[in-house]
Amino acid sequence: MTTTIPYTPAVEDRTASLPLRLMLAPAGTAPALLDGAWWPRSRDLTAELPALTAVLDPLWGRITHVTVNPTFWPVIPRKVPVDGHVVGVGWFKAEQDPHKLLLFSYTVGRWDLLVIPPETSPATAARLMTEAADPRGTRTASALMDEAEQRRIAEEMELSLVSVWDSEGGHGARLPTSRSPAREVITQVPGAAKGI
Hints:
Elements: E1 3-5, E2 22-24, E3 36-38, H1 45-60, E4 63-68, E5 79-82, E6 85-91, E7 100-105, E8 109-115, H2 122-132, H3 141-167, H4 170-173, H5 181-188
Helix pairs in contact: 2-3
InterPro entries: DUF5994
Pfam family, one: DUF5994
């Protein structure tokens, strides 16, 4: 079972109707490349980390340190005050995947979370969260993000082609006619139901 944790008003002053922002792999599963995904609302670590650690501390033990790749974080504070303690923040440009956040706890260990960009659409974020929380996952954070970007480009291209087709009069061709071409094909193959 996958654990999904919404940010609640107790953690963040937002409405409860917002989409889920964190999904974790099931507890007790074999280690995978990722332990889940986090979809922050901004690129401000000082604002985002307290809410994340407030949710994770009871589950994983007190989070003491976090590392990021500075590629997508404009400001990286050295320390962030969170509920009753301070979380140290470090960064590694070459050594750490730019789409991953590492969390450390003295009591339990380390977790790797995919960081989904704040501007990601809810449908794409949901798909990425599910894939990152899959304990059988074999793709890195960057591989998941590259695949999502390729899918987004393909969908935009398809929409663009449909738009051009519609603007050139193709939309009228999609309207149903009095005799359906599919029905003609079905009636021309009388033995198809028998496997002939």
